[in-house]
Amino acid sequence: MQHRPRTPEWRWWAAVLGAAILLRALVALALLVRMPMVSDAHDYYELAGRLTAGDTGGAFYWPPGESMLLACAFAAFGRSLLVARLVTIATSLGGVVLTALLARDLAGRRAERIAGWIAAAYAPSVLLCGQTYAQHLAALCLAAVAWFGWRAAREGRLLSFAATGAALGVGCLTRPSMVSVAPVLAVGWALAARRRQMPLRSFVGGAALAGSIALAVLLPAQAHDAAAGAGWVLSTNNERNLFLGNNPYTPDYKTSHLGQRSLDELAPETRAYLRSFYDRPDAREAMAHEAVRYVVSHPLRTAWRTLNRATSFWGFDYIASREIAKWRGWGTVRSLPLLAVEGGSYLVVLLLVVCALVVRPVPCSRAHAAWLIALALAYEAPYAIAFSGGTYHFPVVPLLVPFAALALAHPARTWRRVLRSRIAWAALALVAAVQLQYAYYAITMR
Fold first, then answer.
1. How many domains does the chain have?
2. Contact at 8 Å (CB) between 224 and 179?
3. What count of other Cβ atoms lies within 10 Å of the Cβ of residue 445?
4. Rounded Cα gap, residues 331 and 310, in angstroms
5. Spatial distance between the Cα atoms of 307 and 402, rounded to a whole number of angstroms
6. 307 domain-assigned
7. Is 22 part of any domain?
8. Is 257 a domain residue?
9. Is residue 46 part of a domain?
10. Range of 94's domain?
C-alpha cells in the first residue's frame, strides 16, 4: 500500500484542507450565518460567555470542555458567533488531519489520501460547523487518543504518551463517557510491552505520565464542582442521563426520547413521574438509585433496551438537517434533500466500512485495525448503558473512515469480493435493517 504519490505531499494537504475549509466556511459563514445557536450548542455558547466574564457560577451541568475552548477564543478575540464558528471549523479541520493520519498508519499513503477527502467532504461534519455542539471537539480528542496512543505503543516515546493523556483529559472534559476508552489504552500498551515492542520501563513511565496529565486536565473542573457542593464530578447531568434511559417510561427502542423532549411534550403520567424526581432536594442521588433499582428488577427488559441502544448508536445522522429545517420553517418534504445529504453521507461511509471489514480488499495492519475498532466499541459502551441515538456516534467516525478508504482504494476488487461473499451481503442487510428500524422510530416518535 506504500504507493508513491503523484502529487507532492504538501500540495495534497493544501488541496484537501483547502476544500475542507471552503465547504465549512460556505455552510457556517455564508448559508447559515444568520442561524442562532440552538439546543445544546446554545447552552455551551452561553456558558463560554459566562466563563469569559469570570462567572463560573455553580456546578457544571454540561461537561465544560467545549465551553472552555470557546472561552479561550473569546478571551483572545472577543465573544461573537463568528469566533465560535471559526473555532468549530478549526476543530473540524483537526479531525480531518487526524483521520488521514490514522488511515496512513492503517494501510499507507493511498488510504491516507482517500480518507482525507472523505473526511473533508463528510456532510454531518460540514453541516454542523455552524453550531457549537461538542461533537467536533470530542471527535478530535478521540482521534488524537487513537493516533498518539498508537505511536506511544509502537515507539515508546514519552511525548506520545503525554499527548495521549492530554487528548484523553480534554476528551473526558468534553464527554465524560470517553473515560471508557482508558482500559483500551492500558491493554494496548501492556500488550506492546509484553511483545517487546517497547521496553517495560517505557510502558510504566509512559502510562503514568499519560494518566497524570489526564488527571491534571480534569481535576480543576472536578474541584470546582466539589466546591459547589456537587461532588468530584465533571458535570451533574450524568445521573439524569442514566435515569432517563432506565425507568418504567423509557421507550424500549428510542431510549433517548425522554432526554430530547421538554416535559410539556410528554404524556401527563410520564411528566408527573419525572417531576417527582426532578423536584427532590436529593434529585441526583434519587435518580441514580431509581435507575439502578429498575435495571436490577427488570433484567430482561434492560437487556432488550441495551441491545436497542447498541444498534441505534449506529443510526443515521439527522441532527443538523432537523435544526436547520426548524430554523428555516421547512416542512418534512422540503427538508428531505438535506436529510438525504446528511444521513446518506454517513450511510455510504458505514456501508464501505462494513465491506472493508468483511472482504478485506487490500492489505492493512491487523493490529492497527483491532486498535481502532476496540476504541470505537469502548466509546460506544456508556451509551449502551444510559441512552443512545445516532448523534452519539459522531466522535467515532474518524476511526471508521480509514476502513472506508480501504474499500475505495481498489473499488473494483472490493465490489467483486462483495458480490462473491454471502457474509458481506448478510452484513449489509443487517446494516440496512438497523437503519430502517431507526428511521421508523424517528418518524413515529417525532
1. 1
2. no
3. 12
4. 30
5. 26
6. no
7. yes
8. no
9. yes
10. 9-237+312-444
